[in-house]
Each structure stands twice: as C-alpha cells, then as structure tokens.
Write a structure and sequence with these properties.
125 residues, alpha+beta, Ribosomal Protein L22, Chain A, 3-stranded antiparallel β-sheet, two-stranded antiparallel ribbon, 5 strands, 32% strand
Length: 125
C-alpha cells in the first residue's frame, strides 16, 4: 500500500553556490560521509551527483509527510545501480510510526537539474 509520495527538483548551480558559500559545514549538514565519499569519484561531477542525492532526500521527506534531518536519510546504490534509501534516527522512527516498510526512489539529472521521486510503501490498514 502506498503511504506517501514525494518529488523534488534541484538546480545544480544553486546547490553548488550553497556548498561553495558554506563549505564543509553545508556538506556535513546535508549529506552522510558515505554520500560525500561517492561524490568525489563521479565522472559527471561532484555537484551533479550531490544535487541528485539532495533531490532524493527531499522527495523522501515529502513521502513521509514530515521534515527531518537530511543526515538521517542516506541515498546509496544497490549492486545493479538503482538508488537505495536508508533511514536513521528519528526519521527511521517516523517511518515506523507511519507503518512505512520501504521507500522506493528514482532520480535523474542533467548538467543543470536533478529530479527525484520517492514512494513510501507500507502495510495495508
């Protein structure tokens, strides 16, 4: 059963400006260490990769229907390359309270924009 959906779009240059202005503080607030490690090795560029991850996090927040700390949402990759959502801390508890068992996410990006959609799935009532 679908418990919630969310979608978000991020302008790559806007995220680049935020990170360049606020530096490591912004990165640590928005991304997990694992996400940051993956970003530096991307062919398409660090900011395009991070914009996709940030859009996915915002889509996840919207699918849960409640604001949360971005560092409690991690967007990683399955072996087949598809994105995987891992929740931590209070965000994981929020999902549990709302009977969300899994969150599916898909994302896409160009040099200019990143977009992501999330679907929170759970038990039938």
């Amino acid at each position: 059963m679908i418990k919630g959906i969310g979608i978000d779009m991020v302008e790559v240059d806007r995220l680049r400006h935020i990170i360049q202005r606020w530096g490591e503080r912004a990165k640590k607030r928005m991304f997990t260490p694992e996400e940051l490690a993956c970003a530096t090795s991307r062919k398409q560029g660090e900011f395009i990769y991070l914009a996709g991850r940030f859009a996915a996090k915002e889509a996840v927040v919207k699918s849960l229907g409640q604001y949360t700390d971005w560092s409690e949402i991690e967007i990683s990759r399955e072996e087949n390359g598809s994105p995987r959502v891992t929740l931590k801390g209070k965000t994981k508890e929020t999902a549990r309270e709302r009977k969300v068992k899994e969150i599916l996410v898909t994302l896409s990006h160009t040099k200019t924009y990143a977009i992501a959609e999330a679907v929170a799935l759970g038990e039938n009532q």
